[in-house]
Amino acid sequence: MQITLSIWEVLWIGKTHDINILSQPNILITNVLETIKWTLYTLGIFFLIQVFLGMVIPRLSYFLVKAIFSVLLLTGIGLVMYFSKTLVPLGADVYSYSFSDIKETVMAAGMLNLYTVFGILGALVVIYWMLSLGRYIKIKGKGAWIIPGAAFFVLVVLMVLPINTSKGLTGLSDFLAENKSFFLYQESYDYFASAENIYFDFYLSSTNDENQLFQKEYMDTQYPFLHKNNYPDLLGNYFEPFDSAPNLVFVIVEGLGKAYSGPNAYLGSWTPFLDSLGAHSLYWKNNLSSTGRTFGVLPGLFGGLPFGEHGFMEATPYPKHRTLLSVLKENNYQINYFIGSDKHFDNADTFMQYQGVDMIVDIHNFDGDLKKSPAEANGFSWGYADKENFKNGLRKIPSTDKPQVNIFQTMSSHSPFVIPQQAYYNQKVTSFLEAKQYSHPTISLNKYQKELASIMYVDDAIKDFFTEYEKREDFENTIFIITGDHRLPEIPMSSLIDRFHVPLIIYSEKLKRPKQMAAVTTHFEVPTSLLAYLDNNFGIKSPEKVAWRGYVLDTAQEFRSNIKHALMRNKYQFRDYFNGEYLISDDKAFKISDNMNIDPINEPTLQEKLSTEFQQYKNQDGYVMNNNAIIP
Fold it and tell me: Is pLDDT at 63 greater than 80 in this prediction?
């Protein structure tokens, strides 16, 4: 049954996402071999359990083993279904979410309803019955020894001498080659049984490189990230004088990947308004988010903070720290946060409260004339759609003489991609595709209509937001920062770094001229650059010592990468690090080029250097989080 499930998964998902299994047979071969390994492994464990239990309670032992195998098989089917929705295997990050967060996510995917419950119960009964048919298979004499012996031999070969048939696979093909049950088991084992040792040899080594944009002056070995606040102001030359300290408006767009937004988007750009706005803005086309999921966008974009074990916002309590928000709060800024869903998700409210945010508006604070997003069949909705979130926020922005930071976080372009006017936006995708003639050699865009429709919806929502904001008296005294939190994994990704590749737009009526930057930058560079600008031009008082991970936004028009950072995929997977134009991901080395393309390289010395730097960063990250050692 396991092998049948394996073959069905590869053929089904491969066909759905235009992966030619005949031209890439190693996908199926690898998945089947992994499935055999997993099946024999579990059979061996439960065979031993059944032998010992059978000596004491024979009937109950047979029932328990069949029940456990039934659950394992059903779990395997569930993991395949999860993968078919997200295109990313479920790993140990599931243990880092609260029960309420998991419940919301499952309901959002439309997987939790009465039909699902009865389906699960029915499937358990059928699987249990099929396993019971084993009693009609009689194995006697030598066969009783030969079959288990052969199975054990095959398992040893697969465990000790693994055949690397997945070499050369990337992105979705690589994930498809994984047995999803074995993947979850391995990640779970690492999560519960193996803790990395933290070595403190980072005290003895320099973290500066000659090619970095500027040199950080580190100050205290007890606080490895602490350095002098000597960030240069690289933004000042791009702005005309403001009447007073400018307002800042952040628009954090759920799932806004560079793959389908802006110039050189390899899936074509589906954000016409943002494209138009970007042409009149400072635009970074090679920008990276700090994490591959939403949990890291607030700590990264506003504070350049460490990750911790499962993301900074999961830490209890938070280590002492400062962010752009807390510093501006100390400088008499009014700070407001608007989100259409539940503020508790990913502990966003706890983080914002720590920064001293004045007003948090979430799903529970919307005016009565505004409507929630359309619900799934099970009645679940994430909350209010993005157009409603912007309307509500604009109504509630306080009237004050203080400068303000207003943060809008969208959610409509999140699975299950249910939006208002669904039929209208579905048709808009169809018409847009026909008009633009977008195509991709391996991705059929018409199969991702709901995902692309949600992106076009949020683009319209931002357009409407700007139309209304222009009517405000403070429009000309405002700087807008627009970026994505990560790329949508539901549309197949082209590379291991693609999940982090998001556009970064800075717009203001006071910009002297637009400019498109090709230099690599990240969310970590946003708070440092904005604060350096505000400090240099408006006398904002900022700390003399800071621990922000970011450098400064590189404004070079030609491609280059003069920064280095670790990136976190999800709340458990911490496997990506780049320095300059070189990346290691899943212990493989790559060269980064323009548009964040990556090509594998075989340079063992360089790979070892990057691996050592990455481990050093992880040691530092764990140390500062566990010892409250970000800042004194």
Answer: no
CA distances in angstroms from 461 to 255, 266, 464, 605, listed in the order given: 15, 23, 5, 49
State the Cα–Cα distance between residues 7 and 9, nearest whole angstrom. Answer: 5
Q: Which residues contact 443 (CB under 8 A, 6 or more apart)?
A: 17, 18, 267, 491, 492
d(CA 97, CA 571) in angstroms, rounded, equals 8
* pLDDT at position 331 over 50: yes
Residue labelled with tokens 């490189």: 209
- Residue 83's CB: how many other CB atoms inside 10 A? 20
Amino acid identity, position 447: K
Query: Where do we find the tokens 């360089």?
Result: 606
CB 28 within 8 A of CB 20: no
Question: Which token pair is 53?
Answer: 């239990």
Span 423-449, pLDDT tens digits: 999 999 999 999 999 988 888 999 999
Nearest residue to 586 (alpha-carbon basis) of 214, 142, 49, 175: 175
Q: CB-based contacts of 182: which residues, under 8 Å, 6+ apart?
A: 34, 35, 37, 38, 41
In the structure encoding, which two tokens stand for residue 218, read together?
Answer: 């580190």
Asked if residues 289 and 258 have their Cβ atoms less than 8 Å apart, the reply is no
pLDDT of residue 188: 79
| 8 Å CB contact between 30 and 183 | no
The 3-state secondary structure of 478-535, one letter per residue: EEEEEEECCCCCCCCCCCCCHHHECCEEEECCCECCCEEECCCEECCHHHHHHHHHHH
